[in-house]
Amino acid sequence: MMPGEPGYLSLRALLRFPARWDVAGRDIHVCENPNLVAIVADALGSNCAPLVCADGMPGAAQRTLLIQLARAGGRLHYHGDFDWAGLRIGNWVMRACGARPWRYAAADYLAAVRRLPVRGRRLGADSVEADWNADLAQAMRTHGQAVDEEAIAADLVQDLG
């Protein structure tokens, strides 16, 4: 892989050639959407802090990588879409990998909703609670608006720079 360019790790590679991740005590950011990875790569290139993309609900390769990084002592920080699927993914990443929220609390959602120039898509009725923040799901139900990661990309890029 070239420095600053997004790369792909297959489940096969992760299992057949397990890396010795030198991440003990290091912050590793985890996002939900591959579009955010592209935005960050364009903005920061090789100056980006470690970033892993779950690509939606983590599949086998993503789960394996996240668990390997957590077991190697990496401090995972998760951000996803402010929608019900994003909260489900966040619950899994935080439970299974000991991740902490990264700009992913009720106050962050409310700030994003206030700043958005255009209303996003509506949230459906299938709400889910956020295990890490008791007020987040209620704030989302109150406003009824989803906020995609890309909508707050500038804030996330700033954190990663």
Q: How do the strands and helices of this protein lay out in sequence?
A:
Layout: H1 11-16, E1 27-31, H2 34-44, E2 51-53, H3 60-71, E3 75-78, H4 84-97, E4 100-101, H5 106-115, H6 136-143, H7 153-160
Parallel strand pairs: 1-2, 1-3, 3-4
Helix pairs in contact: 2-7, 5-6
In words, what does this structure look like?
With 161 residues, this protein is an alpha/beta fold. It has a single domain (23-160), classed as Dna Topoisomerase Vi A Subunit, Chain: A, domain 2, CATH 3.40.1360.10. The chain has 7 helices and 4 strands. The chain has helices spanning 11-16, 34-44, 60-71, 84-97, 106-115, 136-143, 153-160, and strands at residues 27-31, 51-53, 75-78, 100-101. It has a 4-stranded parallel sheet, sandwiched between helices. Helix 2 (34-44) links the parallel strand 1 and strand 2 (51-53). The longest helix is centred in the middle third of the chain and has 14 residues, at 84-97. The protein starts with 10 loop residues before the first helix and ends with a helix. The model has no long low-confidence stretch (mean pLDDT 93).
